[in-house]
Amino acid sequence: MNPPLAPMLAKRVSDIPDGDGWIFEPKWDGFRAIIFRDGDEVFLQSRDQKSLNRYFPELITPLQNQLPSQCVLDGEIVIARHGTLDFEALQLRIHPAASRVKMLSAQMPASIVFFDLLSEGDRDLQTRPFEERRRRLEFLLSSPAPQLHLTPATQDRSVASDWFRRFEGAGLDGVVAKAASGLYEPDKRVMYKVKHERDCDCVVAGFRWYKESVGAAVGSLLLGLFDHSGSLQHVGVCASFTKDKRRELLEFLAPYRINALEDHPWRSWASPETDHAGEQRMPGGQSRWSQGKDLSWEPLRSELVVEVAYEHMQGTRFRHMAHFRRWRTDKKPSECTYEQLEVVPAHELMEIFSSGR
Questions:
Q1: Which of 24, 56, 65, 162 is the most exposed place for a label (fewest CB within 10 A)?
Q2: Does a structural domain hold residue 292?
Q3: Strand, helix or coil at 177?
Q4: What pLDDT was estimated at residue 270?
Q5: What is the pLDDT, as a whole number, of residue 283?
């Protein structure tokens, strides 16, 4: 197996699955990484299939010392500080200056938590059941080096529920459920994840100015998700920034404003004269809730991905304003689709309202 290899993905569900045949794991909050080793060569591949080697040099030697001479593993790069995971410290590593990366790697060394084995020697294990891959992974990491870890796993739903309650304070996202008989399917959402609150990764395609601070401060970010046809749909905004953050955002977004309307998916919406009858409401469009507010917007090149927290969806849009959580430099804009959202099946919704109908 050679890079690149798209990692297997998870779909969000509202509760830990019932029944037999599941293996549950804590959900780690870090950088997803596929680790390739071939002799002395080690390649850390990010979720978006780029190299992470230069950002985490302290991991190379432990991986060379611990892993088989030829193997591919799936895991998460994390930084643990003061008894909790520190995602901000992890993001500081994505820095162009090698000297800064070297300093941070000594001050706050990263670790890898492994949760799957995809190949060993000349054996491709992707088509083997997960429970078999897990047993082999446990054997390989029976005595791991200090910076290498094997994620806990259980088939007991009550234990997984306990993890879900207790581990949130340590910075873990929730619980992942994998079918014990499941194959490894790259780039497919075949696992399930249960998280403590709804979140979503969105494309940032524009922004609005803050009240009376046009040209000086950002008011809100305009969010988009790709639908099944590949069109970027406007799903809402995120805001609630401090005054300092609003000014910082303006400086941060400045490079993405350059030539932003060239090939912009909402280019036609920038012209108020364009007829948009029948289209989804544009970012600057008025509604009966707008009450004449200035909803003009500034376009950005659709290259930024942001994770936001939201309450629920109403149709294809966020019901209320979403809240900024963090930038996702490890994700491609094309991954920001409606598929990642938790959706209540129609038949379940009908059961809830059956008495009223």
A1: 65
A2: yes
A3: strand
A4: 66
A5: 56
Both 233 and 331 in one domain: the answer is yes
Residue 134 and residue 301: Cα distance in Å, rounded? 42
Q: Which of 293, 307, 306, 318 is nearest to 256 (CA)?
A: 306
CA distances from 191 to 130, 194, 323, 336 (A): 11, 10, 26, 18
- 254 and 335 in a single domain? The answer is yes
Residues of the chain with pLDDT under 70: 169, 270-295, 312, 314, 342-357
- Establish if 17 belongs to a structural domain: yes
What is the three-class DSSP state of 66? Answer: helix
Q: Which residues pair with 194 in a beta bridge?
A: 175
Q: Could you tell me if 78 and 146 lie in one domain?
A: yes
Quick check: 202 and 332 in contact, CB under 8 A?
no
Total domains, the chain: 2
- Distance from C-alpha of 278 to C-alpha of 304, rounded to nearest angstrom: 28
Take residue 89 and report the two structure tokens written for it: 């410290």
Q: What pLDDT does residue 343 have?
A: 58
Output phi, psi for 105, to 5 deg.
Answer: -65, -30
**Containing domain of residue 32, as a range?**
9-195
Q: Which three-class secondary structure state does DSSP give residue 332?
A: coil
- 160 and 26 share one domain: yes
Let me know whether 220 and 137 are in one domain: no
User: Using CA atoms, how far apart are residues 337 and 229, in angstroms rounded to an integer?
Assistant: 10
Q: β-strands 22-27, 199-209: how paired?
A: unpaired
Provide Rg for the chain, Cα atoms: 22
Catalytic residues: 27
The answer to whether residues 86 and 171 touch, using CB atoms and an 8 Å cutoff, is yes
Q: Return the H-helix or E-strand segment holding 80.
A: strand 80-81
The domain boundary, picked from 148, 176, 195, lies at: 195
Please tell me whether residues 26 and 61 are part of one structural domain: yes
